[in-house]
Design brief:
By secondary structure, the chain is an alpha/beta fold. It has 9 helices and 10 strands. Strand 9 and strand 10 form a beta hairpin. The protein is globular.
Length: about 250
């Protein structure tokens, strides 16, 4: 099983300064050239406040984040699963998770980064500022990443690929045959509605529970069985698969 996650705009600061960025130490080292090209372009637009504001969509309170892109080679790193914060990642509790939980993430989770392409959950990365829709001059992320990302993700796929990425990041690395469940809320009458922002919380809780239980899942049927055994509702719908948010209570990992 491979679980695909989007990155997060918000990132934890700091990291291990004795281990700086090494593109070939990341998962999928064959993407080193593409990664270097994106880093070069990101540095270029980040070098001036005016260009960074437009290219990276930075406001007055976030403009200092441009400096992250100028310090990628020298700033400290930490595992990707710890670097990202926010609505999806906070439910993971990655900084306090036990070794077996972290090992599951490292083995099964891939994050679709705009800066680095697909990376493993345990890959050491610095803080950076770049989104799927950032503008990098003549370099278009939507042209650079999809083909190469799809290739390496397809080569890695072993059984079920559970795609929990947002649409913008899904487009940076389409995976034919993957399952992208819709996160829904069910009201008292049984009517379902798709969640937008808060669907990330449910996804984070799902990935936390998968890791905490050491889930062994190869097919969608096995995921449904695992879900039922753990009180999670995953069901077929007219559009594919639904994940019922209310069935995912906060978990401690």
């Amino acid at each position: 099983m491979t679980v695909l996650l989007p990155p997060s705009e918000t990132k934890r600061e700091g990291g291990d300064t004795s281990r700086t960025l090494d593109l070939r130490a990341l998962s999928f080292p064959e993407l080193a050239d593409e990664r270097a090209a994106v880093i070069t372009a990101a540095r270029s637009v980040s070098s001036e406040e005016s260009s960074a504001r437009t290219a990276l969509k930075l406001g007055p309170k976030s403009i200092a984040e441009r400096f992250r892109n100028l310090e990628l080679d020298t700033s400290g790193t930490m595992p990707a699963i710890e670097r990202y914060t926010g609505v999806l990642y906070d439910p993971l509790g990655a900084q306090t998770a036990d070794d077996s939980t972290r090992s599951w993430w490292f083995d099964h989770v891939v994050v679709q980064s705009a800066m680095f392409g697909p990376i493993g959950a345990g890959d050491p990365i610095p803080a950076y500022r770049l989104s799927h829709d950032s503008r990098l001059g003549n370099l278009r992320l939507a042209s650079l990443w999809p083909a190469v990302s799809s290739r390496v993700l397809d080569e890695r796929a072993d059984g079920l690929v559970l795609d929990l990425r947002s649409e913008g990041y899904r487009q940076l690395g389409p995976v034919p045959g993957s399952v992208a469940p819709r996160v829904v809320s069910v009201d008292g009458s049984g009517r379902r509605r798709a969640l937008n922002h808060w669907n990330k919380t449910a996804k984070g809780r799902l990935v936390a529970l998968l890791a905490r239980t050491g889930a062994v899942v190869v097919t969608m049927d096995e995921l449904v069985d695992w879900a039922a055994a753990n009180g999670v509702v995953v069901e077929r719908s007219d559009s594919g698969w639904d994940l019922v948010a209310e069935s995912l209570e906060p978990v401690t990992v």
